[in-house]
Amino acid sequence: MSAAPVFLRLLGIDVGGTTMKAAFRTVDAAGALGRPEHAARTATPPDESAADALGAFAEQLIAAHGPVDAVGLAIPGIVDDTAGIAEFSVAPTWTGLPLRELMARRLGTPVALGHDVRLGGLAEGRIGAAVDSRDYLFLALGTGVGGMLCLDGRPRLGPHHRAAELGHVIVEPGGAACGCGQRGCLETIASATGISRLYQGAAGVPASAREVAALAAAGDEQAASVWSHAVDALAVALLIAVTVLDLELVVVGGGVAEAGEQLLGPLRERLTARCTFQRPPRLVGAALGDEAAVAGAALHALDLLASA
After folding, report:
1. Can you give the residue ranges of every domain in the chain?
2. 133-286: same fold as 6-120+290-307?
3. What is the 3-state secondary structure (H, E, C) of the chain?
4. Which CATH superfamily is domain 133-286 in?
5. Which CATH class is domain 6-120+290-307?
């Protein structure tokens, strides 16, 4: 049986705080997205020069592997997907940057721009863990905590492009200061940064979130306490989301979620225990791992072409 003919060719790029990841995807005439091809990575400059580095990265990939019909970009920070503007980002340091226009002009091809977590959630809904759900929350537990909300099969951005920022739900009033200016946000407790900070404060020695998870699994009491604290905070935040939105499914991704059932098992139990009239959602791990935003960027580019 011969392969379906290629209808479109896309390039998806995820611009992280330290690393840019990219892959090509083909789309057949039926609209099916092919497997990633020619995956590549490069360092992300920490300052505004990242825009030039991004353009050079894309140019090099296209020169090496052939032209594309569109490019999708997934970027961190506050993003206006509609206007194609990187409103604010700490790493890279972008403020009010019309990145979509700049990249489209430089590459000579249509460019779609979106928030990295939202595009990761989009990919989980189209080709990942949420393919059978029309109402789900994608929660990314990484350096920070981000979210993407899908309602009735459509990503919900909100009028100010800030929907589903669950990392800044206050779960511990008067708690640790958060970078957003509030205190006691979920991000200060359940992000990789928060877990690492809390463990160092308790044990007096540094450890990554992955190391804390391993220590907790091995019976270290301080690590187990920090891990349990993170799970409790997540259960509180998710109960708020479930109460407001009546969610069918929650997909948990990001580096912290790589702990698998060490995280998801107790989180299911504690969320269910907190529900009274609410129906607890299905709670699953992400299927696409750290490639979700790259796939989502390609899908965003496909949507751009479909809407033209």
Report:
1. 6-120+290-307, 133-286
2. yes
3. CCCCCEEEEEEEEEECCCEEEEEEEEEECCCCECCCEEEEEEECCCCCCHHHHHHHHHHHHHHHHCCCCEEEEEECCEEECCCCEEEEECCCCEEEECHHHHHHHHHCCCEEEEEHHHHHHHHHHHHCCCCCCCCEEEEEECCCEEEEEEECCEEECCCCCCCCCHHHCECCCCCCECCCCCECECHHHHCHHHHHHHHHHHHCCCCCHHHHHHHHHCCCHHHHHHHHHHHHHHHHHHHHHHHHHCCCEEEEECHHHHHCHHHHHHHHHHHHHHCCCCCCCEEEECCCHHHHHHHHHHHHHHHHHHHC
4. ATPase, nucleotide binding domain (3.30.420.40)
5. alpha beta
- How many Cα atoms sit within 13 Å of 94 on the Cβ side? 29
Burial 138-171 (b: 16+ CB within 10 A, else e): bbbbbbbbbbbbbeeeebebeeebebbbbbbbbb
Q: In terms of residues, how long is the chain?
A: 308
The encoded tokens of residue 194 equal: 């928060």
Look at the pTM and tell me if it is higher than 0.70.
yes
Tokens of 145: 């905590």
For the segment 252-294, what is each residue's pLDDT rounded down to a tens digit?
Answer: 999 999 999 999 999 999 999 999 999 999 999 999 988 999 9
